[in-house]
Amino acid sequence: MTVPLTVDPGLQGDLTVPSDAIGVVVFAHGSGSSRHSARNIAVARELQDNRFATLLFDLLSPDEDHGDRRFDIDLLTERLRAAMAELSRRPETAGLPLGLFGASTGAAAALRAAAAEPERVRAVVSRGGRPDLAGDALGQVRSPTLLIVGARDEEVLRLNQSAAAELGGRHAIEIVPKATHLFEEPGALERVAQLAASWFSEYLG
Questions:
Q1: Residue 192 in contact with residue 183, Cβ under 8 Å?
Q2: Cβ(167)–Cβ(63) below 8 Å
Q3: How far apart are CA 94 and CA 170, in angstroms?
Q4: Which SS3 state, helix, strand or coil, does residue 77 take?
Q5: Strands 52-57 and 11-16
């Protein structure tokens, strides 16, 4: 069942909770994206099939998503944590272990949120993310973190490898063969979804 959810300060989200949910995953999308991202929806459906509740929500309002706020990692982190707090107040998700799935700049926000709330965030997955933008918070992350990068996304792969060396907790990098930044190649996004489901099943299940 999917229900609309409003996250302070009035940002819109879609919360889907399977009847037998074993965990909940909050999606933090990248700049220029939204809760309607076809890629994140595809990953969310795979997670739902694996008994995870999912929250896809807009980190920015439509007006904000055309300016510098797209790269304001502090702001994105604050709003992501507001979404986490909202889930802790809802009876259907309050008792579920929580994970974060970040894409692009959203991955940096996810890692900062994990560093700020290590007891709440049980695992993090990044898809084509910019973990380097999390800065000094990387060394404070204790949540098991999976960084998924396309093999042909060479600059982002280099940034992920550098950031991984600074992570404070267990981490891994999965390189999807022949995939570019948006994982548009046949089978690439499906591989991302499978890797994410496996990681969250290990640490949230």
A1: yes
A2: no
A3: 25
A4: helix
A5: antiparallel
Task: Return the residue matching tokens 């502090």.
Answer: 74
Task: Work out the burial of residue 166: count CB atoms within 10 Å of its CB; fewer than 13 is exposed, 13-18 middle, 19 or more buried.
Answer: middle
Closest CA to 118 of 17, 203, 16, 8: 203
Residue pLDDT, tens place only, 69-114: 667 899 999 999 999 999 999 999 999 999 999 999 999 999 999 9
| 42, 94 contact by CB (below 8 A) | no
Residue owning tokens 């709003």? 79
- The set of residues, in sequence order, having a beta carbon less than 8 Å from that of 88 and lying 6+ positions away, is 94, 120
- List the one residue out of 173, 157, 162 whose CA is nearest residue 134: 162
Q: Which two tokens mark 24?
A: 């909940």
How many Cβ atoms from other residues are within 10 Å of residue 108's Cβ? 28
| pTM for this entry | 0.95
Alpha carbon distance 14, 56 (integer Å): 5
The set of residues, in sequence order, having a beta carbon less than 8 Å from that of 36 and lying 6+ positions away, is: none
